[in-house]
Amino acid sequence: MVIGFVGLGRMGSHMCRHIVQKSGLEVIVFDVVKESVAPLLDVGARSADSLAELCANSELIFTCLPMPDDVEVVAVGQGGVSENAKPGSVLIDLSTNSVSGARKIGGQLANSGISMLDAPVSGGPMGAQAGTLSVMVGGDDGLFAQYKPVLQTFGRTVVYVGGLGCGLILKLVNNMIATCYMSAAAEGLTLAEEAGLDLRTVDMVLRDSSADSLPYRALADAAISRNFSPKFPVQLAAKDLRLALGLAEDVHVQTPQGVAAQNLLRMACLQGFGQLDATAMIQVYESLRTPAGN
Fold it and tell me: Where exactly are the structural domains of the chain?
């Protein structure tokens, strides 16, 4: 089996590296950012000159792309998977897409004899680098069983969730909960500091109290160190939450906390923090501080 991998960014580059080094299979790579290809060639992958070439020569194709529109272009656009992959090929999309979008793409691919699994991941660049991601898979359960060993090269927890799109439902719920935790942490830490407490002392106690969580810790670390270098940028967090809220609207579920967190992310983007890490949402609260005596 030959594997193709499209999208070698912060997450994809590490996942692809694990496939190359652990699967024992031939891996072909492609990315529009040419500089991202070289590190994969160094560990044994080979490059394709075009997306069409990769699709034509791969039986299993992975995509790891930032936006739903990117997935659609690669999967069913001109020169993409539907036009060039052989019937019987399989696309596994690791991106965070809309549920309806994934199902639409899956239907279009099926018309070309190509199957699809949605397999979004959680764990961030550090989890991707370590090969310890959580992978949530939707689609045909037989295909899941067949390709689970490949997913396990970069995933510590690889779980079948249900039909096509179900992996994405779980991923969007995960990200909505995590973002709500983080926005509450931003609000609480700003309150503690404005009320006169030392953030390091606050953090020491909260890490051993009921407020503790991984999103809390990420935000507290950034707030104290003032390091907002992007691991998961604000603009991508806003995209994922927008998709979660769209899903909530589709199934008629009210999400007031999700809406509040989305408004905070939008404010962060408007204030110029969109390219920074999602933890930079705390800077919105900091910018709204009332001068002493007012």
Answer: 2-163, 169-287
d(CA 70, CA 63): 10
pLDDT tens readout for residues 180-238: 999 999 999 999 999 999 999 999 999 999 999 999 999 999 999 999 999 999 999 99
Average per-residue pLDDT in the chain?
96
Q: Say what the pTM is.
A: 0.94
H/E stretch holding 132: none
**Helix crossing, 12-23 with 141-151: angle to 10°?**
90
Is there a contact between 101 and 68 (Cβ–Cβ < 8 Å)? yes
**Same-fold call for 2-163 versus 169-287:** no
> Cα(101)–Cα(106) distance, rounded to whole angstroms?
9
Catalytically annotated residue among 34, 104, 171, 231: 171
Q: Could you confirm whether 34 is annotated as catalytic?
A: no
Per residue in 12-28, pLDDT (tens digit) is 999 999 999 999 999 99
Rounded CA separation 283/108 (Å): 43
The superfamily CATH assigns to domain 169-287 is: N-(1-d-carboxylethyl)-l-norvaline Dehydrogenase; domain 2 (1.10.1040.10)
- Provide the percentage of residues in the chain whose pLDDT is more than 90: 98
Domain 2-163, CATH: 3.40.50.720
Q: What is the pLDDT of residues 43-75, one digit of tens each?
A: 999 999 999 999 999 999 999 999 999 999 999
d(C-alpha 197, C-alpha 59), whole Å: 58
DSSP for 259-281, written as a single string: HHHHHHHHHHHHTT-TTSBGGGG
C-alpha span between 265 and 164 (Å, rounded) = 29
